[in-house]
Write a structure and sequence with these properties.
Elements: E1 2-3, E2 8-12, E3 15-24, E4 27-40, E5 43-47, H1 55-80
Antiparallel strand pairs: 1-3, 2-3, 3-4, 4-5
Length: 81
């Protein structure tokens, strides 16, 4: 299994999903990781920890990531046909 493409990002404010495409014997598969960006002094950092006020935005980003993955899979299927 090899990652053959750059990841796709979906972001609302400080919450983002990074979508990874991996080639498998069964065709491309997608996974998503989620993070929250924050500034520590002058340096930007990220964490996978989310507070109460982040959760609804996280849910919306997850929904957008799901839609993006579906679109990526549809595009891959169209190219295969």
């Amino acid at each position: 299994m090899a990652n053959t493409q750059k990841p796709v990002e979906v972001r609302i404010g400080a919450i983002k999903a990074t979508i990874w495409q991996n080639e498998t014997e069964a065709g491309p598969r997608h996974n998503a990781t989620f993070s929250r960006l924050y500034k520590d002094g002058d340096e930007w950092k990220s964490t996978s920890s989310f507070g109460r006020d982040d959760l609804l935005v996280l849910a919306k980003v997850a929904d957008l990531a799901h839609s993006r993955i579906f679109a990526l899979q549809q595009a891959a299927q169209s190219q295969a046909d």
